[in-house]
């Protein structure tokens, strides 16, 4: 009876080991749909993709390509090409640097444009706020036209007063304000 349980334990352990191996294989396998998505690199492409390769060396491998030996450079390019072909490079800029930089410039221009538009709006609102603060409260009562009319009437009354003292004939319509209804 004990032997029977031991046999089942062995079988279940073997099944677990097989499933673990399958998981490892499936995780390490290259996704066939993505392989070569950006093209296939070979050793002869080293000079065509030199910018991307040098950037990858500097950022990912932390190697200065200018002081790195040529023979080692070819080995590193083989690693780069393998990552390129399997689409496992850490960032899209390593696939097409010029395209990525153009995209970044476009994003920068859009961000600057949005920022300038936001500042324009804030400048306009600031000007309106400034005008409202410094224009002062409007006086209740008469408008500017009403005040000018009152000045004219006061002048006419003064002139009529001088004429009366001098003994001249007075004009009854002068110095009087007439209300008009609108």
From TrEMBL:
<feature type="compositionally biased region" description="Basic residues">
    <location>
        <begin position="11"/>
        <end position="27"/>
    </location>
</feature>
<feature type="region of interest" description="Disordered">
    <location>
        <begin position="126"/>
        <end position="146"/>
    </location>
</feature>
<protein>
    <submittedName>
        <fullName>Uncharacterized protein</fullName>
    </submittedName>
</protein>
<feature type="region of interest" description="Disordered">
    <location>
        <begin position="8"/>
        <end position="31"/>
    </location>
</feature>
